[in-house]
Specification:
The protein has about 525 residues and is an alpha/beta fold. The protein has helices spanning about 20-30, 50-60, 130-145, 180-190, 255, 270-280, 375-395, 425-440, 485-490, 510-525, 530-534, and strands at about 5-10, 35-40, 70, 90, 95, 100-105, 110-115, 120, 130, 155, 195, 205, 210, 220-225, 240-245, 290, 300, 340, 345-350, 360-365, 395-405, 415-420, 445, 460-465, 470-475. The longest helix has 20 residues, at about 375-395.
C-alpha cells in the first residue's frame, strides 16, 4: 500500500447493537489488518432497554471500542438524550460524536464533511433536524475558496434526493419519499469522492458520477455514493463497507481526475430549481402549488389550472433574417424533395446528395442548431432518426448523421446511408478521427448518456457526428472549419469511395430525377414513417 493511504470502515444503522458491530470489526481486523477509522452513519443508538444497557457498558469504560469511531447525531427525538453537546464531543473511549455539521480534517489531511440528522419540515427545527441555513453555512465554509476541489468524504444519515438518476436501479425504497433535496444540494457543491448515508434499510452502491460539465469545464474527480443497510437486517444486505483512500491533498492531480469506464452524469444536474426552492425554505411537497396573485385571497391552486394571465404558450421559433431554403413555410423550399412531415420536423432528400437516399432532418420552424431546439422538436428528431435507422437497416445500409453549426442559419441534420459491405461502423469512426487529425482538428467522443446541450451553449459553432451504434463525435469550431468536411469523409476512399462527389454542387440531378428519387424513397420508407403511423 502506498504511503499516505488510509484504510477506512463505514457502517450503516447500528441501532444500539454495539457488541455486534465491534465484534465484527475485530474479526475483520484480525483477518485483514488494522484500519485507521470507523465511521458510522444513520441511527447509531437504539431505543430498546437492551440497547441502553449495552451503551452503559461502553460509557462506563467496562467495554471499549476496538478502534477510533466517529458517529453522527440523532435522527429522532428518542435518541437526542445521548448527545450532550451539539457541537460534538467524546461520548466514550474511542467513540466520538462529530457534531451537528462541520468538517473534520485528520492529521493525514483527509477531509470529512458531515451533516447530522434529517431535513426539517418545520421551523424552528427540532434538535435532530437540519435546516437550509445549516446547509448554506456548511457549503460556504468550504466552497467559498477558489482553490476548493472537493472533500474526500461526505457523511449524512439521509440520502440525497434523486441520487439514482442516470445511475443503476435501486430497489426496496420509495423514491417519492426517499431523500433530502438539501443533502443533494450539499453533495452537488462539496463534490465528495465518497458519500455515505443510511436510514433506508437498503444497500445501494451507485455508479460513480462526474462532477464537471463535459468539454465545458476541466475534468474533476468522480463521486461514489454508497448507502448502507442496518446491522440487524436479516436479508444479508451489506451494512459495513471497507475501502482505501489517499487524501485529495496528497494526490497527483492527473490521477485524481481519472474517469472510470462506468461513470455517469451527475444525478443533480437538473435539480437547480429544487435547490433554489430549498434555500427559500419551500419543502418538496409544496412545489405543486403556487399562489394565484390575480385574486385578492391567498388561495393555493394547482399549477396546471391556469389563470387569466398564466396560460403557458409554446415558445415560438425566431424568424429568419433573410429568405430561408429550409423553413417549410418559405417559398424557397423545394417541396418536391419532401419525404415526410411531422408536427415539428420534416424529412427531405438532400439537394445534390451523396446517393439517392441521402436525406436531411429539418425543423419546420427556424432554428439554427440542435442545441437551440425546444424539447418537443428534439423528441421528434429522435423519432425521425429511429425510423431512418430501421429503414436503412432493412435495405442493408448503416445510418450516419452529422451536423455543422457553422456558416448556416437553419439546422440541417445530414443523414447518409453507407452500404454495410463498404465498411464497419468502427471504420467510419476512424475515418472521421484520422481525417480530422490531418486537418489539425480534434474530434472528441461524447460520453454515453450525454447530449449536446450539456456540452455547448446556443450560438456556439460546432461539428457533430452520430453513428448507427449511437457513438457520437464532437468538435468545437473556434475559427475556421472546412464546410464540406462531414461529407468529404463519407465520400473518401475509406468509406463510400466516391471522392468526386465530395462537393454537393458537383452532384446535380435534374428535377425529374429528384422527383423520381423522392417517390422511390417515400414508398420504401412508408412502413417506418411515424408521421403516418401516429
Amino acid at each position: 500500500m502506498s504511503a499516505g493511504t488510509l484504510r477506512i470502515l463505514v457502517c450503516g444503522d447500528v441501532e444500539g447493537k454495539l457488541n455486534v458491530l465491534f465484534n465484527r470489526v475485530r474479526s475483520i481486523q484480525k483477518k485483514s489488518g488494522d484500519f485507521d477509522l470507523l465511521l458510522c452513519v444513520g441511527n447509531f443508538f437504539g431505543t430498546s432497554a437492551e440497547a441502553e444497557s449495552e451503551w452503559a457498558e461502553y460509557k462506563s469504560g467496562a467495554k471499549k471500542a476496538p478502534m477510533q469511531t466517529y458517529i453522527l447525531g440523532a435522527n429522532a427525538q428518542e435518541t437526542t438524550k445521548y448527545y450532550s453537546n451539539v457541537d460534538g464531543c467524546e461520548l466514550a473511549e474511542n467513540i466520538t460524536y462529530l457534531g451537528r455539521k462541520g468538517v473534520f480534517t485528520g492529521a493525514s489531511g483527509l477531509q470529512i464533511a458531515y451533516l447530522s440528522g434529517t431535513e426539517a419540515r418545520n421551523v424552528p427545527a427540532p434538535a435532530f433536524c437540519f435546516t437550509a441555513e445549516d446547509v448554506i453555512n456548511l457549503k460556504s465554509s468550504l466552497a467559498a475558496s477558489s482553490k476548493f476541489k472537493g472533500v474526500d468524504l461526505l457523511l449524512t444519515s439521509q440520502w440525497p434526493r434523486g441520487v439514482w438518476q442516470y445511475g443503476n436501479s435501486v430497489e426496496d425504497i420509495d423514491k417519492k419519499l426517499c431523500g433530502s433535496v438539501l443533502v443533494a444540494d450539499l453533495a452537488s457543491t462539496l463534490k465528495p469522492r465518497y458519500h455515505f448515508a443510511a436510514l433506508e434499510g437498503a444497500n445501494y452502491e451507485r455508479l460513480p458520477y462526474r462532477n464537471h460539465m463535459i468539454l465545458q469545464e476541466n475534468a474533476q474527480h468522480v463521486t461514489r455514493f454508497i448507502a448502507l443497510a442496518n446491522i440487524s437486517n436479516t436479508s444479508k444486505k451489506k451494512y459495513l463497507y471497507a475501502f482505501n483512500v489517499v487524501p485529495i491533498s496528497s494526490m497527483d492531480s492527473t490521477e485524481l481526475v481519472k474517469q472510470p469506464l462506468d461513470v455517469t452524469e451527475s444525478p443533480y444536474k437538473k435539480m437547480a430549481k429544487e435547490f433554489q426552492r430549498s434555500k427559500l425554505g419551500e419543502s418538496a411537497s409544496d412545489t405543486q402549488f403556487f399562489f394565484d396573485l390575480s385574486k385578492r385571497e391567498g388561495k393555493k391552486r394547482l399549477s396546471g389550472e391556469g389563470g387569466p394571465h398564466q396560460s403557458k404558450q409554446a415558445r415560438k421559433p425566431p424568424k429568419p433574417t433573410s429568405p430561408c431554403w429550409f423553413c417549410l413555410a418559405s417559398p424557397e423550399v423545394e417541396k418536391h424533395l419532401i419525404i415526410s412531415i411531422g408536427t415539428h420536423c420534416y424529412i427531405a432528400l438532400a439537394k445534390g446528395g451523396l446517393s439517392p437516399d441521402h436525406v436531411l432532418i429539418l425543423p419546420i420552424g427556424h432554428y439554427q442548431s440542435m442545441v437551440e431546439l425546444p424539447s418537443e422538436a428534439i423528441e421528434e428528431v429522435d423519432k425521425c432518426k429511429l425510423a431512418l435507422k430501421k429503414f436503412y437497416k432493412s435495405i442493408g445500409k448503416r445510418f450516419v448523421m452529422f451536423e455543422r453549426n457553422y456558416k448556416s442559419q437553419h439546422l440541417q441534420l445530414q443523414v447518409v446511408p453507407v452500404p454495410i459491405q463498404c465498411c464497419t461502423t468502427e471504420d467510419i469512426k476512424e475515418a472521421y478521427i484520422v481525417q480530422a487529425e490531418e486537418q489539425q482538428m480534434e474530434l472528441l467522443e461524447i460520453p454515453e448518456h450525454s447530449d449536446l446541450k450539456q456540452i455547448i451553449q446556443p450560438g456556439s459553432a460546432y461539428f457533430y457526428v452520430e453513428l448507427d451504434n449511437e457513438e457520437k463525435l464532437f468538435h468545437r469550431i473556434k475559427k475556421q472549419f472546412p464546410l464540406q468536411f462531414g461529407r468529404e469523409v463519407l465520400a473518401s476512399e475509406a468509406v463510400l469511395n466516391i471522392p468526386d462527389k465530395a462537393n454537393w454542387r458537383e452532384c446535380k440531378y435534374s428535377r425529374e430525377d429528384e422527383i423520381e428519387f423522392a417517390k422511390s424513397f417515400r414508398e420504401g420508407f412508408q412502413p417506418y414513417d411515424f408521421s403516418l403511423l401516429d
